[in-house]
Write a structure and sequence with these properties.
By secondary structure, this protein is an alpha+beta fold. The protein has three helices and 19 strands. It has helices spanning about 95-130, 135-170, 340-345; strands at about 5-15, 35-40, 45-65, 70-75, 85, 90-95, 170-175, 180-185, 190, 200-215, 225-230, 235-245, 250-260, 270-285, 290-295, 295-305, 305-320, 320-325, 335. Strand 16 and strand 17 (about 305-320) form a beta hairpin. It is elongated and about 130 Å long.
C-alpha cells in the first residue's frame, strides 16, 4: 500500500468550475457546492510496466468421452448441465458381442489350464522315470517341450481374456473426474463408432489462461511467477504454468493457471494477463478522489481561487487507487472528499 501524504482536513465551500469541453457553467443563482475532505499531494510512484495480452480462460480438466467399440448406445445416463462424480456412469454401449467373446476367452483359458495340468503331470512323471533310468533322454525332452508349449498356450489364453475384459470396460463410459456435463452428443439407439465423441465433461475448478505475445514481452516471464490477470473485467491472480514457442513461430504462448474453486469465473470467458516489462513512473490517486459524471472522470484540484473540477483520463485501478494517465501532474494538490454518512454506514 502506498502511503498517502494527507494534510489536515479542510472543509471547503467554493463553486466547482467545469472544465469539460462545451459544458455550460452552473447558473449563477445555484448555491455553490460544499466539498468536505482532505488535501492530497500528487506524487510520482514507481509501478510495474506491463503488457496486457488477451486470451481465453479454459478449464484445465476437459475431456470428450468416446469408446473403442462399434455398437448401439443402449443408455445415456446424463444430460447437459448435470454435475457428475468421478466414476459415475455416463453412457452404456450394447455389450452382447463382448459378452460372447468373454465366454469364448473363459473357455479358452479353461482348456489351456487343463492341457497345462496334463503336461505338468507328464513332465513330472518322466523326470522320475529318467532319474531311475526307466525313460530315455528323448522321452524326457519331449515331455519338457510339451510342458513349455502348454505354459505358453496358457499365457496366450489369459492375455486374450484380459484383452476382452479391457474392451468390455468400453461398454460402460464413466466420468474421468468430478465435473459438469457440457455436451451430450448421442441418444439411445445411436450407433457409436470407435473414437466418436459421446459426452463432454469439464471441471472449472482451475482455469488456464492462454495468451500469445512477442518474444521481447515474455523474456522476463518465468514458470511459477504470479501475474495479475482479469477475467471478464474482474481482477484476479494467475500463476505462470509455462512459456513455449507458438506454432506461428514469431510469437510465444504463455499459459497461466487461476484457482477457481469457488466457480467465480465461467469457462470460456475472455481474459487478460499483465506481463511485467519493467518499472515506470505513474500518477496514482485515491479512488475516492475520482468524480464520475457519465463517461467523464475528474478530480477537484486545489487552485489559487479554490478547488476546481478538472477532467482527467484514468487508467487501470488498483485496490484503493486509480492511475491518472493525463490531466494531472506530480506536485499538484487535490481534494479527497470525506465519505458521506450513507457511505460510512
Amino acid at each position: 500500500m502506498i502511503p498517502f501524504p494527507v494534510r489536515r482536513v479542510w472543509p471547503l465551500a467554493v463553486p466547482v468550475a467545469l472544465a469539460a469541453g462545451g459544458r455550460p457553467p452552473p447558473a449563477a443563482s445555484s448555491a455553490p457546492p460544499r466539498i468536505d475532505g482532505a488535501v492530497y499531494v500528487v506524487r510520482d510512484t514507481i509501478v510495474p510496466a506491463t503488457l496486457d495480452a488477451a486470451g481465453i480462460a479454459e478449464p484445465v480438466e476437459r475431456t470428450t468421452v468416446s469408446t473403442k467399440l462399434l455398437g448401439t448406445v443402449t443408455e445415456v445416463a446424463v444430460h447437459a448441465g448435470d454435475a457428475v462424480r468421478r466414476g459415475q456412469l455416463l453412457a452404456r454401449i450394447d455389450a452382447r458381442e463382448i459378452s460372447a467373446k468373454r465366454l469364448q476367452a473363459q473357455a479358452a483359458v479353461a482348456e489351456a489350464e487343463a492341457v497345462h495340468t496334463d503336461a505338468l503331470t507328464q513332465a513330472t512323471r518322466m523326470r522320475a522315470l529318467y532319474a531311475d533310468s526307466a525313460a530315455t533322454r528323448a522321452q524326457l525332452d519331449a515331455a519338457e517341450t510339451g510342458l513349455a508349449r502348454a505354459e505358453a498356450a496358457l499365457r496366450t489364453a489369459r492375455a486374450a481374456q484380459a484383452e476382452v475384459e479391457a474392451m468390455a470396460a468400453y461398454t460402460e463410459l464413466r466420468a474421468p473426474f468430478d465435473g459438469v456435463v457440457t455436451a451430450r452428443l448421442v441418444d439411445v439407439g445411436a450407433l457409436a463408432a470407435p473414437g466418436a465423441p459421446l459426452v463432454t465433461v469439464e471441471n472449472s475448478a482451475r482455469l488456464r489462461i492462454t495468451v500469445t505475445a512477442p518474444p521481447a514481452a515474455v523474456r522476463g516471464v518465468r514458470r511459477g511467477a504470479r501475474v495479475d490477470a482479469t477475467i471478464e473485467g474482474t481482477p484476479t491472480t494467475a500463476v505462470v504454468e509455462g512459456v513455449v514457442p507458438a506454432a506461428s513461430g514469431a510469437l510465444y504462448t504463455v499459459n497461466a493457471l487461476v484457482d477457481n474453486a469457488a466457480r467465480t469465473f465461467l469457462a470460456g470467458s475472455s481474459a487478460r494477463l499483465a506481463l511485467v516489462q519493467g518499472m515506470r513512473r505513474a500518477v496514482l490517486v485515491p479512488a475516492a478522489a475520482i468524480v464520475s459524471e457519465g463517461d467523464l472522470s475528474g478530480v477537484h484540484v486545489v487552485t489559487a481561487d479554490g478547488p476546481a473540477l478538472r477532467w482527467v483520463r484514468v487508467g487501470p485501478a488498483a485496490p484503493g487507487l486509480v492511475e491518472v494517465l493525463s490531466g494531472l501532474r506530480a506536485g499538484e494538490r487535490i481534494v479527497v472528499p470525506r465519505p458521506s454518512a450513507e457511505q460510512v454506514s
